[in-house]
Amino acid sequence: MEAPAPHSPAEAPMPNVTIEFTVTSPEQMQELGRRLAKLLRPGDLVMLNGELGAGKTTLTRGLGEGLGVRGAVTSPTFVIARVHPSLGDGPPLVHVDAYRLGGGLDEMEDLDLDVSLPDSVVVVEWGEGKVEDLTDDRLHVVIHRAVGDTTDEVRHVTLTGLGQRWTTVDLAVLSA
Ligand SMILES: Nc1ncnc2c1ncn2[C@@H]1O[C@H](COP(=O)(O)OP(=O)(O)OP(=O)(O)O)[C@@H](O)[C@H]1O
Ligand SMILES: [Mg+2]
Fold it and tell me: What is the CATH number of the domain that holds 160?
């Protein structure tokens, strides 16, 4: 990435930070989640997008392990949001599956995510077009299978940090 111009105004839009990984098994996806957890702090919103069965919940399971929270991360049939409290002194993980919710923040209002976000790590599956109003600082994670991948377990994961929060985070440490 290019260094910023020396006298660029403070209000200048920050460049997005994007990094892509290829993951070849569910275990590796979970490991990516565990590593990502180490970069997260209260107030972080992580949006997970990608088709059914892409591996969003699998990644979240790793996040839960890395954060050291209570309870197994699952994809519940009826529950839209589940709070996993920390087993230590870290933030709770709020895991939202917005698949069955309609568009707009209105529908999300009952979840009070705006209230829990400052003290929690909030991870939302299928949140596109639904939770962006919560904050400008977001980590967008897109998981997809590419045409021509040789096995069923190959996934391409793209992480994009949006907003001030992510300009100072080196996502490349995730591949270390
Ligand atoms: N590389 C991989 N990463 C993640 N999951 C994988 C991978 N390869 C195979 N899988 C399998 O794909 C499935 C992913 O399921 P998961 O519930 O994590 O997906 P999801 O994106 O949350 O789906 P949904 O949209 O239904 O919530 C699991 O059965 C997992 O074992
Ligand atoms: Mg899921």
Answer: 3.40.50.300
